[in-house]
Amino acid sequence: MIVAIFTFGLNRGKKMPELMNSITESVSSIAVILLIIGGGGAFKQVLIDSHVDKYVAHLMEGSSISPLILAWLIAAVLRVVLGSATVAGMTAAGIAAPLVAATHVSPEFMVLATGAGSMTFSHVNDAGFWIYKEFFNLSIGKTIKTWSVMVTIASLVGLAGVLIINQFIK
């Protein structure tokens, strides 16, 4: 930022108050995103420290549900609740990690299933939602009808792809 202040600001004749306003706008637009990601990382650690991951692994013992579907479901629920794909993916990975050892499922497929689940239903807590909304100048309702539906379809197609490929490569 210091280099940018000098090269793109002071060297081009801009005054310090104008530069400070520009910096304030820039920082305020990214601050919420950084807080959401940081909060999500903390939330993931709270879940791991409280042994939710071990509880989920224990519930899976003797269960007929595919661990790939469970990893997708955990990530999808977290995405809808929290809004951030990054936070949902990190948290779901921390919760679902013990399932790899407990069920002997491919860790690569668990990553893909978790990633697909973390894409589900983007809404107002997601930076991508707002970028899409503003770029195309849409209302919140139209953004939900287009962007949110599209990422949910992509998430389901991703899960289906993982389940299909898992049948052939074990």
From TrEMBL:
Source taxon at top rank: Bacteria
Membrane topology reported for the UniProt record: Multi-pass membrane protein
Keywords: Cell membrane, Membrane, Transmembrane, Transmembrane helix, Transport
Cell location: Cell membrane
Keyword Cytoplasm: no
Any matching Pfam family: GntP_permease
Residue ranges crossing the lipid bilayer per the database entry: 26-43, 55-75, 81-102, 144-165
Family: Belongs to the GntP permease family.
This protein's name: Gluconate permease
